[in-house]
Amino acid sequence: MLDVKNLFVAYGQSQALHGLSFSARANETVAIMGRNGMGKTTLFKALMGVLPVKAGSIELAGREISGDESFRRVAKGIAYVPQGRMIFPTLTVEENIQTGLENVKHRRIPDEIYALFPVLFDMKRRKGGNLSGGQQQQLAIARALVTNPKVLLLDEPTEGIQPSIIKDIAKALNEIRKLRGITIVVSEQVLSFAMDVADRLFVIEGGRLVHETSRADTDVARIKQYLSV
Known about the structure:
- The protein is α/β, with parallel strands linked by helices.
- The chain has one domain: P-loop containing nucleotide triphosphate hydrolases (Rossmann fold), CATH 3.40.50.
- The protein contains 9 helices and 10 strands.
- The strands form 2 sheets. A 6-stranded mixed β-sheet has the order 6-7-8-3-9-10, sandwiched between helices. A 4-stranded antiparallel β-sheet has the order 2-1-4-5, with helices on one face.
- Strand 7, helix 7 (163-180) and strand 8 form a beta-alpha-beta unit.
């Protein structure tokens, strides 16, 4: 569903991603693990078209998209939940979710979105800025889902969120995949969360993928070594 080959991304003269390759199948969740500053957010911004690709290819369902602008990638089936969530604090929960429906004729939020995140239904008239970090994260995921994506990208979804809510988000992601059969790519530092949601785990270090494992074969101690400073 998502096939990334030999991806190079630079900030000016500074090379950030060095020939990075990975794929994610339909109805699969892949975790990109790594410490801060190793290239996770750079990778996600490149996949979304926020950062230009210097070389390499990004294919979505067999179609090359690396030259497309971000809004075209969304139309073709990529949704992105950025690090820090980036919800609109002055809009209500309902209005925030509706921003994901900009290109859809009807602005009605599907019932299944509220079924996945009941707290959002209870708070739909509340301003986004008045939600807790965990609730804002659920809101950001809901907003991405209404675009009906083939691939959902989540950048550091557990950052700054309490452990009980992290469990809720893991449960919701597994439910989303079961309901919709979509591909999920998540960047993460919390190994327990990655083990709850991912079929395969990759480790990124210095802009390169240095380790790959299936969930069943994961050497937890080894991955913890990569994640420790």
